Amino acid sequence: MKRNSTLPTIPATASHLVLPEQLAQQAADAVRELLAEAAAANTTRSYATALRYWAGWHQGRYGIDLSLPVSEAVVIQFLVDHIQRKNKTGLVSELPPALDQALVAAGLKARVGPLKLSTVVQRVAVLSTAHKLKRLENPCELPSVRTLLSRARRAAVKRGERPTKKTAITRPELEAMLATCDESLEGLRDRALLCFGFASGGRRRSEIAAADMRDLRKVGDDSYIYRLEYSKTQQSGVKADSTPDKPILGRSAEALAAWLEAAEIDSGAIFRRIWKGRVGPALLPGSVASIVKRRAKLAGLAGDFGAHSLRSGFVTEAGKQGVPLPAVMAMTEHRSVASVIGYFQAGAVEDNPAARLLK
Questions:
Q1: Which of 9, 129, 141, 313 is least surrounded by Cβ atoms within 10 Å, i.e. has the fewest?
Q2: pLDDT score of 13 more than 90
Q3: How confident is the model at residue 334 (pLDDT cuts 50, 70, 90)?
Q4: How big, in percent rounded to 5, are the helix, strand and coil portions of the chain?
Q5: Dihedral sign of CA atoms 125, 131, 137, 139 in order
Q6: Number of other CB atoms surrounding residue 205 within 10 Å
Q7: CA distances (Å), 323 to each of 132, 235, 306, 327, 343, in order?
Q8: Are residues 225 and 124 in the same domain?
Q9: Where are the beta strands (DSSP E) in the chain?
Q10: Within 13 Å, how many C-alpha atoms sit on residue 305's CB side?
Q11: Is residue 264 classed as helix, strand or coil in its secondary structure?
């Protein structure tokens, strides 16, 4: 697509860009409305980041502040600036190098180079939401935009691009990671965190960080019931087809009890920071991910591990052990089969009877 000749000269420095603290007023209003809609904290942060980027890109591309509604031409220009396409010289896009560098210098972009297609799609979705909240004509739902995004996805698949997923922590990986946990406060906490995160249904890092003693109930001598009052599903306002009560049994319950006793925790956050041998305040979601990565590294595991590895690993292991999908979804709080079936089928693939026709 040819660049519009009426566009102003792209500024060569970041000083001309809208900085994060200088959002266009319409974008700032949209962020406040998203907050008013009681979106989850992580969602709100990602939406704010996307709208800051839109504001900076728009100001750098056109020399004026972003205002809603955005025109169809602007959204199309955003897409061709950020979506790679193949030509005789290789993969190219239309984002001017000077603007790309300015966006990085302004802190609106992590590094020079193309964004992931998933990031581009998410940023268009955020702009679409901003229009919907203001009840404005939405350019992101026009056929031209939807078609371009659809073709971009197909082209990416043809080039062999696939969404990056964290390596699943199934039973063998989990056992190896637990073996690295000693009897120190840190070891007891990490063992309890890994067991809790896995056994209670593959909890998200935000859910592990938010786990609180008020929601934990001891059942008998060696079991717990954890009531999941904070989850992405519940934050969305969609009624889940499962109970919020999640059982913590066997070894997982033992690990949790050992940590609570050693840390002398009887109220407040379950999983906490440890400073110089002392128990501190609640872990942050990012700290949960760091603990998972560190234990995987100590165990000598190969792969790209993160907090989501516990969630995908739980579903994968359940598929391996033949646990019925409804029972799995009752634990994970997945709302749709489509979002969980990929992991579940990956776990069950070796036991597919259709693969044994020549045996």
A1: 9
A2: no
A3: confident
A4: 55, 10, 35
A5: negative
A6: 24
A7: 40, 27, 24, 7, 13
A8: no
A9: 85-87, 90-92, 216-219, 223-227, 245-248, 272-275, 278-282
A10: 24
A11: coil
Cα-Cα-Cα-Cα dihedral sign, residues 226, 229, 230, 232:
positive
Closest to 190 in 3D by CA, of 284, 285, 267, 255: 255
Residue with tokens 């056109």: 62
Token pair 């792209």 in the structure block, residue: 10
Residues 200 and 317 both lie in one domain: yes
pLDDT of 320: 84
The residue assigned the tokens 């995987």 is 296
281 and 154 belong to one structural domain: no
Asked if residue 218 and residue 92 are part of one domain, the reply reads no
Residue ending a domain, choose from 119, 134, 158:
158
Residue 85 CB contacts under 8 Å (≥ 6 apart), including other chains: 91, 92, 93, 155
Which tens digit of pLDDT belongs to each residue from 204-243?
888 999 999 999 999 877 899 999 876 555 444 444 455 7
User: Is there a single domain that holds both residue 126 and residue 186?
Assistant: no
Mean pLDDT, range 102-118, rounded to an integer: 89
Report if residue 8 sits inside a domain: no
**Predicted TM-score (pTM) above 0.70:** no
Task: End-to-end CA distance of the chain: give it in Å, rounded.
Answer: 55
Positive or negative, the CA dihedral 293, 294, 299, 303 is positive
Residue type for 336, please?
A: S
Structure tokens at 269: 């956050």
Is 241 among the domain residues? yes
Both tokens of residue 40?
């989850």
> What is the arithmetic mean of pLDDT over 294-299?
95
Distance CA 173, CA 107 (A): 37
Structural tokens at position 138: 């939405």
* 311 close to 319: Cβ distance less than 8 angstroms: no
